[in-house]
Amino acid sequence: MAWKRMGFKVWFKGNRTLRSILRNDKEKVPLDQCPGLVYEIKCECSASYIGEADNTLAHRYQEHMKSLTRCRNALNRLNGGPPNTSR
Question: What CA–CA distance (Å, rounded) separates 78 from 84?
């Protein structure tokens, strides 16, 4: 999974009931496809960011990459260069 290779730690929150603990007849959904996640991103400077998303990790990752592209394009325009169209 891509989130493991990138060093993300992922926790999923949910309401556990006695029924959900005792009944195990449901098909397990892969972690990267479960909505409602809490994640931690560690920086090289030993700081970390803990975030929460209502959608899946894959969707949140796509949002993050789009945001990075917008930021890079804004910096390029600010410095007089053309926007970067690659992702």
Answer: 13
Q: What is the pLDDT of residues 17-43, one digit of tens each?
A: 787 777 777 787 777 788 887 888 787
What 3-state DSSP class applies to 12? strand
Distance separating alpha carbons of residues 3 and 33, to the nearest angstrom: 12
**Tokens standing for 49?**
């960011």
Contacts of 7 (CB under 8 A, 6+ apart): 41, 42
Question: What strands lie across the sheet with 9-12, from one edge to the other?
Answer: 9-12, 37-42, 48-53
H/E stretch holding 11 reads strand 9-12
Report if pTM > 0.70: no
- The string of DSSP letters for 16-67 reads --HHHHH---SPPPPGGG-SSEEEEEE-TTS-EEEEEESS-HHHHHHHHHHH
